[in-house]
Amino acid sequence: MIVTGLSWIERRLRPADGWLPFLLLLAIILILTLAVVDADWVPEVSIVFVTGFTGLALGIALARRPLGWLPAWLLIIAYGLALTTVLLGRLAPPPNVVLRGWTPISEHIRRNWGLFIDRAGGWLAIALGEGRSEETVVFAFAVGLLAWLLAAFAGWTIFRGRRPWASLIPLTLALALNNYYSQAELWYVPIFVGLLVALVATVGYADREAGWTRRKVDYSGEIRIELLVYSGAIALFLFFVATALPAINFRAISDAVLNRPAVDQAERTLDRVFAGVRQPGPSYLAGEGALEAGGSHGTLPRTFLLGAPPELYETVVMTATAHGDSTRAAHWRGLSYDVYTGRGWAVSAESRESVAAGQPIRLPEILATTAVTQTIVSTSESGRIRYSLGLPLRFDQAVTTRWRGLEDLSRVEGQGGFYTAVSRLSAATPAELRDASLAELSPALKARYTALPDSIPERIHALANQVAGESDLPLTPYDQAKALEAFLRQYPYSLDVELPPADSDPVDYFLFDLQAGYCDYYASAMVVMARSLGLPARLAAGYLAQPAGSDGVQTITQINAHSWTEVYFADYGWLEFEPTAAFAAESAPLPAPEEQDVFGSEATPSQNPPPIPEPARDYAGFFWLLALLPLLLVGWWFWRARHQPWQRPADRAQWAYDRLQRRAGRLGQLVQASQTPAEFSDAFLLHLDHLNQRRLARRLDLVEIKTEIRQLATAFAGWQYAQHKPPIGEVADSWRRVRWRLWILNVGEDLRGLWPNRLSKRE
Question: Who's near 209: CB < 8 A, 6+ residues apart?
Fold first, then answer.
């Protein structure tokens, strides 16, 4: 049945020209996709694996159907656009989301679709303007769609049009461009050329053979073998030629084309709109100067805070003066992180825009804000990040803004050490923030700022739900954030802590093992726990605001570097939270007196947070010991067996006799070196007769082993002195029957020595 079914499937799927052309074309597509992935153009470039092979399958399938080229290619283009969008937008929900029903599925699609549109829209805005974009999703989309179209075209033209060269020329051109503009390995080229020649020869012969069959021309089947031999030789020759080609300098030829003004202008434009292309690494970028406030370049916790050397207290990084209602401001904000990797934080792809002096920064409008003017003097020679209290609205100098998507400001950079900025702070009250709904958030923002890696330990999610998710009364997003903030402030603050192990999640290590730390741990833990509850949150880095002197100037030193949590509320924007225990939580609005009883007579979750979990105990060593104990015992048994002198029969006889003498000595029998084996056995048997008066000895029936003891002594003497040796098997059998009874008798005598009176009375 199974064989019949497989045969039917093979007949249905078997190409008309056989499997060899299909396999060769499949190998060519594989080489091309491997070369593109090896070039590492963008983090999402691995999409070509799926689009390339799927496009090839669809092209071959449509080539075998009675369908015209126009409807076929409309289908190919439509499916290519759809598949590439689904893959890059991550619109296909994972199985755990599918099992939860339609509502989570639609929410997953809506969020990821919004993020995809936001990323593509941000790129388009820069492409139509004068900025510089590091966004890679559009380039990845073009590469994925191109791989789909090239593979589908190859399958269509070979299996429908019978024109292998027409299909392979675009593939060859794609490989040449990929390897010319990238650092991909050169060995792809000779293999590709060899496969190409073999495919052309195979398809050409199959076409000739079909023609001969139609015209009923008689031909020999040996032609196919000769064809394969000749084509293999040609392919091998071209393989070596292609290997030698990289030694030829084509730069002079290419310069004649590439150095034209139109080509140069096109390259400048592509470099501007695809600034993130050919940046190796994961799907996020640390960003140049990303952590000037801490210098960790995308990795938290920052090691420079550990130990707090005295020079950090004294190194001044900037002085600042604030004018206006700055009582709510607690942080000099530099930048924010949106990607939690499970090992630390990173900045996703950004776009850059130049903003002239005095021109407004295009921040989205929010409610309940207050403006603050500040003057900053930076003393750091490498300082490019423009710090401000809250999000900046404009600067008195030309600056470069960095954006995620369309409206998500990441940071601002500028030149020079003196500048004035106007920024905005939230003036929203707790009552207003409690009215903010998660349903009103944009899908792109929710997708970006609630994302967590799959490696997050489950106990972090459980703890977040225990602190702010499970309650008799439904908590608003604001109350959930305050509950998390109050809970984390119970952890002791300390700079004297160890870094987390390399294979552990820093947040998990802080919450359950370390249970003490500094700002990076607190802020990261609150962001991860907030995202676990569905709250859009991110980590912000900069400096902690300091008390102003008599002249109104704040002096910020290196040791004031700080990180905190920002949570987004619909209509009110990003709000700062301070989960670090050592600093006052004044950045977020506090409840007014008339709002203290908003929960009735019950205390708010932030007032009575649950206790921190008990430190995790590491039983790994104990379990490893239990797991290894059987192996140790087995190893000991093998070692003991190898070290027993049983390699020769004489050694085995001597070993058994030696063990017999040791047992006798432990039972009180005096073993003398001058005794012959017969004398020793006689003396030992007399001693056993004396021991046989005791109850334990009688139960062991020592009379039965007397013969075995004599045989052991006789066998030892025979192997030592006799010409005709006794059977060695009898020695092993005799010792096996003797040793356990002597061992039990030995244990009984030892116990008798411990309690002589009690055992004597019983006997």
Answer: 219, 224
Helix (H) or strand (E) holding 482: helix 477-488
Residue 593 per-residue DSSP state? G
**Which CB contacts under 8 angstroms, 24+ apart, belong to 454-458?**
455/342, 455/505, 456/342, 456/505, 456/507, 456/508, 456/528, 456/532, 457/505, 457/508
CA gap 474, 605 in Å, rounded: 11
The gap from C-alpha 655 to its chain's centroid, in whole angstroms, comes to 58
C-alpha to C-alpha distances, 82 to 85, 141, 144, 682, nearest whole angstrom: 5, 11, 11, 97
pLDDT in tens, 435-457: 998 888 899 999 999 999 989 99
Q: Which of 140-154, 161-175, 535-549 has the lowest mean pLDDT?
A: 161-175
Separation of alpha carbons 421 and 393, rounded Å: 7
Number of other CB atoms surrounding residue 561 within 10 Å: 26
- Sequence-distant (6+) residues with CB within 8 A of 625 are none
Q: Is 704 left (phi over 0), alpha (psi -120 to 50) or beta?
A: alpha
If one counts every other C-beta atom within 10 angstroms of the C-beta of residue 447, the result is 24
Q: Which residue has the higher pLDDT, 71 or 5?
A: 71
Q: Which two tokens stand for residue 650?
A: 């004489």
Give me the residues paired with residue 388 across strands: 333
d(CA 232, CA 219): 22
Buried b / exposed e over 253-273, threshold 16 CB at 10 Å, is eeeeeeeeeeeeeeeeeeebb
Residue by residue, DSSP assigns 642-673 as HHSS-SSHHHHHHHHHHHHHHHHHHTTPPP-T
Tell me phi and psi for residue 511, to 5 degrees: -70, -35
pLDDT digits (tens, 9 = 90+) for 131-164: 888 888 999 999 999 999 999 999 888 888 767 7
Q: Which two tokens stand for residue 187?
A: 């060995």
Other residues' Cβ atoms within 10 Å of the Cβ of residue 429: 16
CB atoms within 10 A of CB 117: 16
> What are the beta bridge partners of residue 567?
537, 575
Three-state SS letters, 16-58: CCCHHHHHHHHHHHHHHHHHHHHHCCCCCCCHHHHHHHHHHHH
Q: What is the mean pLDDT of residues 75-102?
A: 91
Closest residue by Cα to residue 140 from 38, 281, 29, 46: 46
Name residue 673's amino acid.
A
The tens digit of pLDDT for each residue in 697-751 reads 666 666 667 777 777 777 777 777 766 666 666 666 677 777 777 777 777 776 6
Tell me the C-alpha distance between 558 and 290, whole Å: 16
